[in-house]
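Reopening this ticket.

The earlier resolution said the output was attached, but the attachment link was broken on my side. Pasting everything inline this time so it's all in one place.
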Amino acid sequence: MNETDPFKAYDEHEGQDDGKDREKDENQEAWQDPEAPEGHGPHTPHANTPTGPGGPGEPTDGGSPGPAQNPGRPPRIPLPRASVEDTGQPLPPLEEPPKPPPLVLEHPVLKSLLGAWALAACSAEETAAVEDHLGVCGACADEALRLREAVGLLHPPESLDLDPGLRTRVLEGCLDRRPPRIPVPEWAAPYDAETARLDALLRDMGDAEWHAPVRLRWFEADTATSRRTTVAGVIAHLLTVDGLVALALGLDDPLGEVTAQTPTPAARTEAYWRGSHFPPTRSVRAPWREQSHDLVRTVSFTGGGAGKLSVPYGDFDLPLHDAMLDRAFECWVHAEDIAEAVDYPYEPPSPRHLNRMIDLAARMLPTAVAMRRQHGLASPLHGRHLVTAGEPGRTLRLEIEGLGGGEWLIPLDSPAAVGSAEHEVAHVALDGVEFCQLAAGHVSPEEAAAGQVGDREAIRDVLFAAASLSRM
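Inline output:
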C-alpha cells in the first residue's frame, strides 16, 4: 500500500454480488427466446412484476423466491433427490452381459489343446471346451492326466532357503579341481559349515531382531531348565563357549579381563553378560565370526594330529576333534533357537555332518549313564557286576532313522565295556533330528522315543542320559 493507492475498505459481500449479477446475466441470455419480440422474453420484467432489492423476480421481503413468483425459472439450488431404497420401490434389474456361445471344436483340435490346457495357457472358452470334452473322451482324459503330472515335474516346489549341503558340495567341487595347500580337517568341517550358515542368517537381520527374546533350554537333574536372553545374547554365549577351544589352541580369550568363577560354559556366559555395560547388540557378531575363522584356520595349520589335544570344559574334557563337533552341534541348535525367535525357517545340517554329531552323542552315552548311576539317578545294577574293560556286556541298540542315521550299540554296565549284539537287552528307534533335540534338552525323554522294545529300565536310563548331555 502506498500514497498513490489509498486504502479502501473491503466488503466481503462485494465479490459475491458481482458473481450473482454475472450469473443472472448468463441465465437471462440462456433462457432468452430468440423468436420472441425484444423486450417480451420469459424473464423480461413487466411493469407489474414486483421488483425487490436484488433485482427483478427477487422477493421484496428478503425471502427466497417461490414458484408463484418465477413459474418458468428453475431453482438456483437443485432440490435433493430421493434414493430408490427410500421409496420402497424395487431396484432395477442388473443387466448382465450375454454369455458367449460355447466353442464347438473337433476332436483333433481339442486333442492338440491338451498341452496348453495342462500348462493353463488356454483361454476361458478353450478351457471350458477341453474340460467338457474330457468328460466324454477317455483317451484324452488319460492323456490330460499324464500331461498334468508332467507339468508338476517341471516346476518342483523348492524352498527359498539354500540346501544345507550346497556349500559342502560347492567346496568339494572346487577342491577337486584345485586341492588346497592347507586343507581343513574333516572333523572341523561341520563347525566351519554351521558357523557359515548361522552367519548368513545373522547378516540379513535388522537391528530390532537382534533384541528378539530367545529362551535357552536344557535339562538339569532330570528337570527342564531355561534361561531368557536375546538373539545377541545367544551369539555372546557361543562366543564365550567357543573361547574354551580358542584357549586350548593358544588364541585370545573373548572374555578379556572379565573373570568367570569357574571355567564352565554357563559360568563364562554369565560372566560375559554381567561384564557388559549394555545388553549385547549386533556388534557381537563381528568378534564371534572372527573367532570362528581363527579356530578353523588354526586347526588347519596344526594338521590332523592336533585333533587329540584336550579341551577342558570345567567338569569334563573333550579331545579337540570332539570339541569341534560339539561346537558345531551347539551352533546348529542355537541357530534354530534364533530362527524360531525371528520366525524364519532353518534346516538341519547336511546328512554327513548330522551323522558325525549323532555319533558324538552316542559315544558319550555310556559315560553319561555311569555318571547318573553314581549320583543315584539311574537304575542300579541289581547284583550284576561291572564287566571287565573291553569285554561285552548288556547292550542297548540305538537305531537312528532318517538322513544321517545309523545304528549304535550302547554298553549299559560300564563305559569301558563293549556293545554286543549278543547281549542286547533293549532296542530304541528315534528320528535323527529328534535325537539331537533330545540331546540338546529341547525334547523331554518321555516324548522322544518313536519305538521301544526290551528292558524298560535300560531304555529309560539311556533316554535320560541323552537329555543330561544338554547344558546351557
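Reporter confirms the inline version is readable. The first strand starts at residue 51 and ends at 52. Confidence is low (pLDDT under 50) at residues 1-68.
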